[in-house]
Design goal:
By secondary structure, the chain is of the alpha+beta class. The chain starts with 8 loop residues before the first helix and ends in a 12-residue tail after the last strand. The radius of gyration is 25 Å and the shape is globular. The strands form five sheets. Strands 1, 4, 13, 14 and 15 form a five-stranded mixed sheet that branches. A five-stranded mixed sheet has the order 8-9-7-12-16.
Length: 356
Amino acid sequence: MPDISLFQPTVLQGVVEKFTAPESLELLSRAPKDPSPFPSATWDVIRGSRAVARPNVPNSEAHIVPRLGRSQESASFIYLREKKVFEPTTLHWIRQPGQIAATNAEAAVMREVGDLNVRFDNFVEFALWQMFTGSLVLDYPDVQATVDYKFPASHKPTVANRWDQATPDKIIADVRTWKRLVSRDGRAVANEAYASELTMSYIFTSFATNGSTTAPSNIYGGGLLSDRMKDSYYSTGVLPGFMGIDWHVQEAVFDASGAAYTTNPTDPGQETKFLADDALILGNFTDNRPFKIIEGPSADDDAPDQHTGKFAKTWKEQDPSARQYLLEYNFLPVIERPEQFIYVADVAPGNSVGQS
């Protein structure tokens, strides 16, 4: 049997820790991670302050002011634990002697390790997008829970005119209102937005078809979208600078486990978008470190003491003889500054295919 380094616990764990999220998983790629040794996640919800200081006189006691408005929230971690039994092809290479067999066995084992890691990353990305709707709802056979991220009601608005029918001035009025909310409540500048290709097309269509209508729409027309904006949108999926915001097209999907999953784990389920076609998320994703992933302690007995983050192990079953690989992750995405974001659930008609 070849010497497979991935069967060594320290090597396997090191490989898992070096995995990076693919660029297609935008929020996971951007989310900072904080370790926590506690059995549940705790985080602060920080509100913006608009108070001003009061003048004082020299040699007098300083004015006592209240702490920055905040509340402390807590929730259980989301616990992921899945394993694979290596396929017969993999076991064949593992059992063969020689360097060629060792190389093929390493590659086969790495494919299995990588596949489980992708499944975990996809779920974390799903949880992050759900978090920005204001709540994360888990409804699975083993887990039913809801995490409330304390979005103010005004930061989950509805539009009076859905954007498939709205004129440019209506769209601009909506965006201007949302930017003011983020600036006023979150004390930050809204500079990024995420929407589907369908929602973005409504912006383009509105400005392209309303150039000759009566005022005030006729002052916008197609001219507000510069050639540079259009070129960037068609080449990179980002509409830069529209209303002072970089607009990102979000079309990534995942396979949600269908109803048959409990009896047929290979069922891919329904193709679902991370961000629904009729939704829009707008705000400031960078200033004040507004969101993060809290990584909890491992629940596996084989994990090192106080280990946080993903934990991996592999072992051989004796009866029936089989090699198994397991991956575990204890985490929770959190928003500490919900007032920096706006979530709109019905900005435009959705597509009936692939909605969550």
